[in-house]
Design brief:
Structural class: mainly beta
Helix content: under 10%
Oligomer: single chain
Distance between the termini: 37 Å
Number of helices: 1
Number of domains: 1
Largest sheet: 6 strands, antiparallel
């Protein structure tokens, strides 16, 4: 049986750009959101721990599923293996794409 793919999800979060790895990602039933499940983190018992990776690991500890707004997503990549999650301060050069979200027509609700 083939191993589940791993996805790298890069998104804006309060003045920072976060990069996470997950095994499940799909469009949510909540309109305008992406669901991210089965987060992949490196072993926390390593001798050297990156503070931003540790911050993300603690933030998502115990989280089963996360809903990310579409307009916060920078990119999603399918990767061969997980990497180190990180949170970096946004220097303002990468911006969310401003667009109004209108609800779907009544027939589709």
């Amino acid at each position: 049986m083939a191993a589940k793919p791993i996805y790298r999800v890069v998104f804006h979060q309060q003045e920072e750009v976060w990069e996470l790895y997950a095994r499940e990602i799909f469009q949510s039933d909540l309109w305008g959101f992406i669901e991210v499940e089965e987060f992949v983190f490196e072993d926390a018992s390593r001798l050297v721990v990156d503070p931003s990776a540790d911050k993300l690991r603690l933030t998502f500890e115990g989280v089963i599923r996360s809903y990310l707004p579409l307009n916060a997503i920078v990119r999603i990549d399918e990767v061969e293996r997980g990497g180190t999650p990180r949170a970096v301060k946004s220097d303002g050069r990468v911006a969310e794409f401003p667009r109004p979200f209108s609800p779907p027509p009544p027939a589709e609700r």
